[in-house]
Structure formats: C-alpha cells, structure tokens
C-alpha cells in the first residue's frame, strides 16, 4: 500500500468515527454531543436542524456511506479514489462553510470530518 493510501485510510476512518457520532445524535441514539468551548460551537443544534438534512435524510448517515465508499476505493487501489476524496472534501466544506455563513455556528464533530477529508485528499493527490 502506498503512503498516500495509508494516510487516506486513517483519515477516512477518523471521518467515519466522527460521522458515526453525528449519526447517533441525528438518529436519536445520543441525547447530547459534547462540544468545544465557545458560543460558536453548537453541534447539538446544528446536527438536529432541518439544515442538516439532504433530501429529507440526515447528512450523518449519508456521510457514513460516502466515506465508506472512499475507504473501499482506497483499499482497492482505484485511480478514482483521489477524485472521490476531493468530492468528499468539497461536500464537507460546503456543509460546514454554508452553515457558518448562514448561522455563524460550527459543529466540532463536523470539523473533524472536514479536516480528515482535507488530509485524505491532500495525501491522495500528492502521491504518484
């Protein structure tokens, strides 16, 4: 396995873990998400709002499926992996950035997935 693939695998697993926590909140398995200090961090409110839905579905489980597919592509050594990772990054950036621009609030758990997407994408695009 190439170095970039290893980094992307670890980053994807981190994103999956974060999205698992978000999904548990969105599906009612968790009553509260711990958050970073500061008024800007409102994970509970953001992950359960109508804005956290895509086509009526919570975005956490959708993200789990998306990052699961990215992990599968990495494990198979697919040439499409870097494009899929870039899609994950753009999607995570649009969700977090859009929420911040609209409400001036952030979800710490979502930022973990966003950061993991950035790491994964950078690692895959740097490798030959």
From TrEMBL:
Keywords: Membrane, Transmembrane, Transmembrane helix. The chain crosses the membrane at residues 106-125. This is Vitamin K epoxide reductase domain-containing protein.
